[in-house]
Amino acid sequence: SGDRPPPRKNCRPESLQARMRRQHRLVVAWWLAVRSSVGFVPARMAGRVSTFACAVDRGALRSMKVKELRQALGERGLPWASYIEKEELVGALAEAMETEEAFSVSGVMRPGAVSELSAEQLEVEIQDDSTPILVDVYARWCGPCQLMAPELVKAAERLGVKARVAKVDSDLEPELSQKLQVGGLPTVILFNRGREVQRIEGAVMADSLVDLVETSLDAAR
Question: Residue 26: is it exposed, middle or buried by C-beta count within 10 angstroms (0-12/13-18/19+)?
């Protein structure tokens, strides 16, 4: 009996999502390498990161099924029923993804949503001064933190592209909590243009969170 042929390797093309995740890992690694060597990231380099991260492969989107394109738009809360041609769906999704990519250097944050960040991801996001970043340092066992969680979601939805909204678990990132000098939970810290501009200790409602960001934006104009 002859030997069986070796099993075929998986030759399926890399998915769009996998390609973008790999791209973002390269962006973050490059960003942190630059920071560690020079101590900061010059504005011209931040621009290079944004340009690199914003490339969306429309050819890959065209390879998706119409149902998949509609689902991707729906997951982003974007209407798709008025689009008749597939190319319209591709264009709408590409535009949405490009907006998302420009919005977040780490690639994990989306406009109108709260994103859970690691210490490394937060460091990268803070250095990007394109929009303010509102950070909620919390713990899962903290009652006031749980009370504030839906308010943070409401604030993110209202702020949209005006600001990035993030959460950091103090139990998972104790060194970061210490570095940020967090004394009580929850602690909300607003960063703008790479530096802390204000912090509030204790649960904060959505209206106050939105006012905090908009006041900072007005002051920066």
Answer: exposed
Residue 145 known to be catalytic: yes
Query: How far, in Å, are 101, 140, 152 from residue 148 at the CA level?
Result: 28, 12, 6
Query: Whose structure tokens read 């790479």?
Result: 194
Q: Which helix (H) or strand (E) holds 201?
A: strand 195-201
Instruction: Single out the catalytic residue among 102, 142, 153, 200.
Output: 142
14-22, long-range: CB < 8 A, 24+ apart: 15/60, 16/57, 16/60, 16/61, 16/64, 19/57, 19/60, 20/107, 21/107
Q: 133-188 pLDDT, tens per residue?
A: 999 999 999 999 999 999 999 999 999 999 999 999 999 999 999 999 999 999 99
> Using CA atoms, how far apart are residues 81 and 115, in angstroms rounded to an integer?
28
Count of residues making up the chain:
221
Spot the catalytic one: 27, 56, 145, 156.
Answer: 145
Say if residues 187 and 201 touch (Cβ distance below 8 Å).
yes
Q: Is 136 helix (H, G, I), strand (E, B) or coil?
A: strand
d(C-alpha 153, C-alpha 82), whole Å: 28
- Between 219 and 77, where is the model more confident? 219
Q: Greater confidence, 107 or 140?
A: 140
Is 11 a catalytic site residue?
A: no
54-72 tens-digit pLDDT = 467 899 999 999 999 999 9
